[in-house]
Structures are given as C-alpha cells and as structure tokens.
Write a structure and sequence with these properties.
It comes from candidate division WWE3 bacterium CG23_combo_of_CG06-09_8_20_14_all_40_14. This is Nucleotidyl transferase AbiEii/AbiGii toxin family protein. Pfam families: AbiEii. With 227 residues, this protein is of the alpha+beta class. The chain folds into 2 domains: 1-120, Nuclear Transport Factor 2, Chain: A; 122-222. 48% of the residues lie in helices and 17% in strands. The protein has 8 helices and 7 strands. The strands form 2 sheets. The chain has a 5-stranded mixed sheet. Strands 6-7 form a two-stranded antiparallel sheet. Strand 6 and strand 7 form a beta hairpin. Helix 4 packs antiparallel against helix 5 (139-150), helix 4 crosses helix 6 (156-167) and helix 7 (173-180) packs antiparallel against helix 8. The radius of gyration is 19 Å and the shape is globular.
C-alpha cells in the first residue's frame, strides 16, 4: 500500500495546525492514492481554495515549514491561479501547489477531514481527473481513470456526467475512448510511481490497462455501428 513520504507527511501535519487549514482543501493525485485508491506514488500535494488568496498568505506557511524542517532550497512560480512551490531537502523533493479553484463550479460531494486537513470527495476528484484527461491527457490521468473505473466502480458514462455537472463540459463517450489512445503507449513512463510492484506486475498492469481501453473502444464503436 502506497504511503505518504516522510516529507509529505510532515507537510500535511504542519498544514493541519496552520492558519490555512480551514481555507484550503487537499485534492489531486496524491490524495486519490493515499486515501481512496492506494494505487500509485505521487510527489505532489495540491491544496485548493474556493476563495482568492495572496502570495504572502501561502508563502508564510512555506517559509515556516522550511525553517522547521530544514528545507535546503525552494523554487516557486505563479501559473494562472496557482502558486507552485518545489521544495528540496537533501535528495528528496516535494512539490506543493496552492490553487484558487472556484470559477463558479459546483461541489459534487461533501468534504471531510483526514489527518486534520479538509479533503476533496472522490466524486470531485474523479470529475477533475476526467476533465484533465481531456485537457492535458498525461499518462497518469489515464492510469488514474482506469483505477477509478476498476476499483471505485465508476463507469465512463458516470465520469462524463460528473464533468458535465461540475464544469458544464459536454464531452462524449466516443471522445472518452478515442482520447485514451493518445497516452496508452506512454504508460510505462509511470514505472517510477509503481515501486512496490515487480517489473512483471508492472508490465501485467500496463497490459491490463491497454486491453481495457482497446476493448472498451471497440465495443463502443460496434454499438454505434449496429444502432
């Protein structure tokens, strides 16, 4: 079972006692793995806020964490409505993002607390992941969708409906299947995130993911042609 790295855990513990804990919630791939699916490693921590915030607000937390944990280097940049911080401690890295994420979106599931921090619902993460799948289509998005389908029992249609409810985006099922072929051949770049699995287990998993999306695409196409 994949766990937080020591540096990730310290960051979450520090956040849970900070002034930011009620204004941000934890979401993204690391939470999806650690709390919901336990399916891969992730070095990122994503904190989202429904309300605008200043750089000084989040930089104060980062600075306090740096001093407390002896972080040797911090790089940061602003990308649209997000501040990205890359922290280095020895040979360990941690990326923390603070994101203003409102845009009049809907919240699909109730948030709860885990490790003292507000966390996103699996429905909201699933909607975000599916939207990202169409927007950037990185191999990890396809990988995560596979586990949302196989382990959390979502279906492609349900995932598309969640995106429609949350973002008003009308992606179709044929788009869902065709999009998968853009990153299927890149799945093996995720091997560093599957260190708990042997090479054989990794290869079998990548084969299963490829077979699922190829079979699903073929079945969907046949259903369209026969109707």
């Amino acid at each position: 079972m994949y766990k937080l790295t020591p540096l990730q855990k310290k960051a979450i513990d520090s956040f849970a006692t900070s002034a930011l804990k009620d204004n941000f919630y934890w979401t993204g791939g690391t939470l999806l793995s650690i709390f919901y699916l336990h399916h891969r490693e992730s070095i990122d921590i994503d904190f989202f806020s429904d309300n605008p915030f200043s750089f000084n607000t989040v930089n104060s937390f980062i600075t306090n964490f740096k001093n407390k944990e002896g972080i040797s280097r911090i790089d940061y940049e602003k990308v649209f409505d997000r501040w990205e911080f890359l922290l280095e401690k020895g040979n360990k890295n941690l990326r923390i993002e603070f994101v203003y994420y409102n845009h009049e979106k809907k919240v699909l599931g109730a948030r709860r607390r885990y490790m003292g921090v507000l966390i996103d619902s699996i429905e909201d993460i699933a909607a975000n992941k599916t939207f990202a799948y169409f927007d950037r289509n990185e191999p990890k998005d396809l990988f995560d969708l596979y586990f949302l389908i196989k382990k959390a029992k979502f279906t492609p249609v349900k995932l598309l409906n969640l995106v429609r409810k949350k973002f008003g985006a009308g992606f179709t099922e044929d788009m869902f299947w065709s999009e998968s072929f853009k990153s299927l051949n890149l799945l093996r770049t995720l091997k560093p995130l599957l260190s708990e699995k042997s090479k054989k287990e990794q290869d079998e998993l990548f084969g299963d993911i490829g077979a699922y999306f190829k079979s699903g695409s073929s079945k969907y196409l046949n259903s369209v042609l026969t109707n």
